Amino acid sequence: MLVVLKPGTPESAAAGVLTRLRMAGLAVHRTEHDGRVRIAAVGEPGAMDWDDVAKWPAVESVSKLARPFKLASRAFHPHDTVISVGRVAIGGVQLAIMAGPCSVEGEEQVFTIARAVAEAGATVLRGGAYKPRTSPYAFQGLGEEGLKLLRRAADANALAVVSEVMEPQLVGLLARYSDILQVGARNMQNYALLREVGHSDKPVLLKRGLSNTIEEWLLSAEHVMAHGNRQVILCERGIRTFETYTRNTLDLNAVPVVKELSHLPVIVDPSHGTGIRDKVAPMARAAVAAGADGLIIEVHHDPDRALSDGAQSLRPEQFVELVRQIRTIAEVLGRTV
Length: 337
Ligand code: PEP
Ligand code: MN
Fold this sequence. Notes:
CATH superfamily of the largest domain: Aldolase class I
Radius of gyration: 21 Å
Order of helices and strands: EHEEHEEEEHEHEHEHEHEHEHHEH
Strand order of the largest sheet: 7-8-9-10-11-12-13-14
Number of helices: 11
Mean pLDDT: 97
Oligomer: single chain
Shape: elongated
Structural class: alpha/beta
CATH class of the largest domain: Alpha Beta
Number of domains: 2
Bound molecules: phosphoenolpyruvate, manganese (II) ion
Helix content: 25-40%
Low-confidence stretches: none
CATH architecture of the largest domain: Alpha-Beta Barrel
């Protein structure tokens, strides 16, 4: 249920409402909008006589939060969430451009790519150190050594860092090196991992699962938020369909749909969404035109020798050209890069 308090309700009265709802066994989460405290009361709504709650002096209105996701819904939190990561704000007017290699492969590689993407206009460096690979014989990542290199390369170029965490036990380690914790497509419904990142104070980049609906994706965001971490960035990265020409089918419908349903920022990954280098730029442009809050793009200076995802990695000069085009598209939409 959504309980909206009257404007100007004193803090003591608001706290009183929260306590009474809690005493009925409900979990309560609060936010503010238009000068009003808004409370999502979740759990067993039958525990309460809501007609009675509507008459409490501090209460302006009581309504049902109709969607299964509550904290992630726009009904609970009407304005866009903007997530600050150092000097980067994700979800605001400025588009978040995240770029870097699929995997951190070594010092020279990550420093070369970090410099190139920073010069092109990226503000966040991506790079996996713990890689979810379909084959157990494929390169699995450099682990903590990779995270150290990624952090140093980012710091040398004033970039923030996003890197994937695959296991609940490694959330603490990732949080030491990375500014944003990436939950990969394969782990979108790993609830132990969602709980652990939900306890972290680092923003979470939650990729959509390969075969998950938008509602399931938002419910995974809800898991993270219900554990206390409201800083969730959603990432559309393509879904599995009958089409096999491209690696995945980038579901750009999801961008305007999620922007309506949720206040969370949505970014798009056209690299995994297409799997094909020369299809990345057109889909990146389309994603921005569709209203995405940013992009995450794989870039490699020597993609033919990349240890993972070389075929979908842009060369630095292609990335420079893409960012130039994105700037023009952003301007039409009243946004910046
Ligand atoms: C990645 O970002 O390199 C990655 C493995 O992405 P996804 O989880 O979307 O497949
Ligand atoms: Mn990859």
